[in-house]
Amino acid sequence: MARDFDNQVIVLGVTGSIAAYKSCEIASRLVEAGAEVVPVLTSGGREFLGTASLEGITGQRAITDMFESVQNPDIEHIALARRANLFLIAPATANIIAKAAHGLADDWLSTTLLATRAPILFAPAMNTMMYQHPATQDNMALLKSRGCHFVGPATGALACGEFGPGRLIDTPAILEAAAIALCNEQSLRGKHVLITSGGNHEPIDPVRYIGNRSSGKMGYALALEALKRGAQVTVVCGPCEVRPPDAAIVVDTPTATAMLEAVNACLPQVDIFIAAAAVADYRIEDPPTEKRKRNGANLTLELAPNPDIAAHVGAARKPHQLAIGFAAETHDILEHAAAKLKKKNLDLIVANDVKSVDSGFGTDTTRAWFLGQDVEPEALPLLSKAELAQRLFDRVAILQATLPATNR
Fold first, then answer.
1. Where in the chain are all domains bearing CATH 3.40.50.10300?
2. Which of 248, 239, 240, 237 is nearest to 275 (CA)?
3. What is the model's pTM?
4. What homologous superfamily is domain 192-403 in, according to CATH?
5. How far apart (Å, rounded) are the C-alpha atoms in residues 68 and 12?
């Protein structure tokens, strides 16, 4: 997500929640990613967190008072409201949500929220009963109807001793939501994207399995890019190191058979299907229900072929649905990928060189080619997986333009 925040001006509002200390981590991650972060603390925020930490992290003077002496005119609320690319309120209390919903302006932050036309993202943090109160829920619904963004809260143990929704969601989810709010590219608005991600664990017995080395990084990058472009995103996810973005709908599926069932359940509602999972080609035939005991002898496993999910979708999809696959290859890459493109009836396939040390499973970069129907293969430079996802959805926009007008 680093490039999402390059040269972006982000106003970080910190309000009166015990979770205010977490704003330091949020600010640090944003600054590391290239953003200019201007911290703003309400009077309640100052009770929980002083200004020194945030000023040290951001290199910016923290704004704390509506009427303080201003040496830099860019700090004035109207000037900053115009300059900011995003207002991120984290943590956001019920109080600031209510003020924003009803246009109250009695401090610097609430006043500037009325003056800005930048996207506004709230990360709620409060007592469970306060969060669930109809007034808070109505205020959030009103703000959402005006285009404001929300992320979280998480459910868990709260400082007050209660358990339930109200915890400030983790920093990675806040950064994902900020990247989504900042993106002006909305080519997928109104579209539903279905992505398979991760690998599979095919059981040998109740405690052992065979699997592959898929990390889920490519699926994550694809899901985040689709969310940034305005899509509804469902990720059918096998076991992996990197979980899908918080804003995606996630269906966990340990085996290839379960993954196919989940894809079939979602497919009628989707516009774009992307098979990024490294689906296990084989499963154990009739695994035992009890643990196999080691006896020193060789173990022979009978393997049955798993369903080819991409081929299944290619055969079952409707004319308005795009189907895109990935081909992880170690040799004769283009030849194998071209054969899969045709056999599986896909619109596009991404051929990956997984043998290269900078392009294999679990790497952050990839060497790839785009292969489409009746077009020459396009060789791509070494790209990060986020950059590959951007290139892929640029191609999706081109493919969508070729669909009949009634099906777009």
1. 192-403
2. 237
3. 0.90
4. CoaB-like (3.40.50.10300)
5. 18
Contacts of 249 (CB under 8 A, 6+ apart): 232, 233, 234, 235
Whether 356 and 307 have beta carbons less than 8 Å apart is answered as no
Residue 272, CB-side half-sphere exposure with 13 Å CA sphere: 29
Q: Is residue 264 over pLDDT 50?
A: yes
**pLDDT one-digit tens code per residue, 317-362:** 999 999 999 998 889 989 999 999 999 999 999 998 887 777 777 7
Starting from the edge strand earliest in sequence, which strands make up the sheet with 120-124, in order?
36-41, 9-14, 86-92, 120-124, 149-150
- Non-local CB neighbours of 372 within 8 Å, separated by 6+ positions: 341, 347, 348, 349, 395, 399
In the CATH scheme, what architecture does the domain 2-182 have? Answer: 3-Layer(aba) Sandwich (3.40)
What does the pLDDT look like over 207-253, one tens digit per residue? Answer: 999 988 889 999 999 999 999 999 999 999 999 999 999 999 999 99
Within 13 Å, how many C-alpha atoms sit on residue 193's CB side?
30
Cβ neighbour number for residue 364 with a 10 Å cutoff: 11
Can you state the percent helix, strand and coil of the chain, rounding each to 5? 40, 25, 40
**Which residues participate in catalysis according to the annotation?**
160
pLDDT digits (tens, 9 = 90+) for 70-129: 555 555 567 888 999 999 999 999 999 999 999 999 999 999 999 999 999 999 999 999
In DSSP notation, 359-397 reads TSTT-SEE-EEEEETTS--EE--SEEHHHHHHHHHHHHH
Q: Would you state the structure tokens that stand for residue 376, as one six-digit string?
A: 């020459």
Q: Which two tokens stand for residue 359?
A: 């392009």
Residues 151-170: pLDDT tens digits? 999 998 887 778 889 999 99
Instruction: In the chain, list all ranges with CATH 3.40.50.1950.
Output: 2-182
Taking the alpha carbons at both ends of the chain, their separation in whole angstroms is 29
Q: Between helices 108-115 and 94-102, what is the axis angle to 10°? A: 40
How confident is the model over 59-73, as pLDDT tens digits? 999 998 765 555 555
